[in-house]
């Protein structure tokens, strides 16, 4: 069945127009117009991606429950997701500051554990096209090493995207991660893949899209946010701090949290991401020795 026919069957209204649009490198994306006048956005996962779209729908609902602005989930199946259409806008300092405040409140809404899945999810998650474990751990350093560093480091090494020296540098971080992790924090509700491409500046403010939502450390979202920064990132951080002051030393720990997205990129894309992860790792270990 074609995407148009599937969407029409799900929503009970004929599709009058289906137009391919940019939706990332993983899914096929469409602008949809229905006979009843609705404008929607649809994503179709690639073959073999399992319940990728169902996991994303659950993540969006969980983020919305935590107060985040997200597209409305209109309908969906394991491999197909239909969302409300979001008209684009432009970032400005006021909108950025407001988003930072909203992000702090989202983190505060919490999760039951580090690695916790959005409610209703059974099975693995995704970050981009890479699988992501929904562990259930009360200890953040152990969780982060076991489920957010090692799987992607090993996969990147197997793909030839990380050298032996780079692998060893990153492995040393896992050996001393308890000393690098900083003060203990409760599990936060994370977007999980918060680079600028997943932050849509709509007419009413910032909207979160394409989550890899899970329970984690709030500094992990901030690390991704500053690694691949959106417009007005300083204003976002100022807004965040106005609601949730950041613990001492957080800027020095950003390198630790950046290992996760950099190693995901190293696994998927190769290039210089493995070397960048190793540079971050070496800075952490060197800083510990001072």
Give the key terms.
Phosphorylase Kinase, domain 1, globular, two-stranded antiparallel ribbon, 290 residues, single chain, 45% helix, 11 strands
Characterization of this structure:
- The strands form 4 sheets. This protein has a 5-stranded antiparallel beta sheet. It has a two-stranded antiparallel sheet with strand order 6-7.
- The radius of gyration is 19 Å and the shape is globular.
- The protein has 2 domains: 82 residues, Phosphorylase Kinase, domain 1 (2-Layer Sandwich), CATH 3.30.200; 196 residues, Aminoglycoside 3'-phosphotransferase, Chain: A, domain 2.
- Helices cover 45% and strands 17% of the residues.
- The chain is α+β, with helices and mostly antiparallel strands.
- It contains 10 helices and 11 strands.
- Helix 3 packs across helix 8 and helix 5 packs across helix 10.
How would you summarize this macromolecular structure in one to three sentences?
The chain is 45% helix and 17% strand.
Write the layout of secondary structure elements.
Layout: H1 3-11, E1 15-21, E2 28-34, E3 39-44, H2 52-65, E4 73-77, E5 80-84, H3 93-108, E6 125-127, E7 130-132, H4 140-158, H5 164-175, H6 177-180, E8 188-190, E9 199-202, E10 205-208, E11 214-216, H7 218-227, H8 233-243, H9 250-269, H10 273-288
Antiparallel strand pairs: 1-2, 2-3, 3-5, 4-5, 6-7, 8-11, 9-10
Helix pairs in contact: 3-8, 4-5, 4-9, 5-10, 7-9, 9-10
The total of helices stands at 10
Q: What is the CATH topology classification name of the largest domain?
A: Aminoglycoside 3'-phosphotransferase, Chain: A, domain 2
What structural class do helix, strand and pairing data support? alpha+beta
CATH class of the largest domain: Alpha Beta
The CATH H-level homologous superfamily of the largest domain: Aminoglycoside phosphotransferase (APH), C-terminal lobe
Shape: globular
* SSE ordering: HEEEHEEHEEHHHEEEEHHHH
End-to-end separation in angstroms reads 62 Å
> What's the average pLDDT?
94
Strand content: 15-25%
Tell me the major beta sheet: 5 strands, antiparallel
- The residue ranges in which pLDDT falls below 50 over 5 or more consecutive positions are none
Helical content (DSSP H or I, runs of 4+): 40-55%
Strand order of the largest sheet: 1-2-3-5-4
Q: Identify the CATH architecture of the largest domain.
A: Alpha-Beta Complex
In angstroms, what is the radius of gyration? Answer: 19 Å
Question: How many domains, in number, for the residues?
Answer: 2
Number of strands: 11
């Amino acid at each position: 069945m074609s995407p148009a026919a599937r969407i029409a069957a799900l929503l009970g209204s004929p599709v009058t127009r289906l137009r391919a649009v940019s939706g990332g490198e993983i899914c096929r994306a469409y602008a949809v117009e229905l006979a009843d006048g609705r404008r929607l956005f649809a994503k179709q996962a690639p073959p073999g991606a399992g319940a990728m779209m169902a996991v994303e729908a659950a993540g969006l609902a969980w983020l919305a429950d935590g107060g985040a602005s997200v597209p409305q989930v209109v309908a969906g199946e394991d491999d197909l997701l239909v969302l409300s259409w979001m008209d684009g806008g432009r970032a400005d300092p006021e909108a950025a500051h407001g988003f930072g405040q909203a992000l702090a409140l989202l983190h505060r809404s919490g999760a039951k554990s580090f690695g916790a899945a959005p409610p209703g999810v059974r099975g693995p998650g995704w970050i981009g096209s890479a699988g992501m474990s929904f562990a259930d751990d009360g200890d953040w350093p152990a969780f982060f090493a076991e489920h957010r560093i090692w799987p992607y480091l090993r996969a990147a090494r197997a793909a030839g995207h990380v050298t032996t020296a780079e692998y060893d540098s990153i492995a040393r971080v896992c050996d001393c991660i308890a000393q690098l992790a900083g003060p203990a924090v409760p599990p936060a509700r994370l977007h999980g893949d918060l680079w600028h491409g997943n932050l849509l500046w709509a007419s009413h403010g910032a909207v979160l899209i394409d989550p890899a939502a899970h329970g984690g450390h709030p500094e992990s979202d901030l690390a991704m946010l500053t690694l691949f920064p959106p417009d007005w990132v300083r204003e976002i951080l100022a807004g965040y701090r106005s609601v949730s002051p950041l613990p001492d030393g957080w800027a020095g720990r950003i390198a630790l949290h950046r290992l996760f997205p950099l190693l995901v990129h190293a696994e998927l894309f190769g290039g210089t991401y493995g070397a960048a992860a190793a540079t971050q790792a070496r800075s952490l270990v060197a800083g510990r020795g001072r």
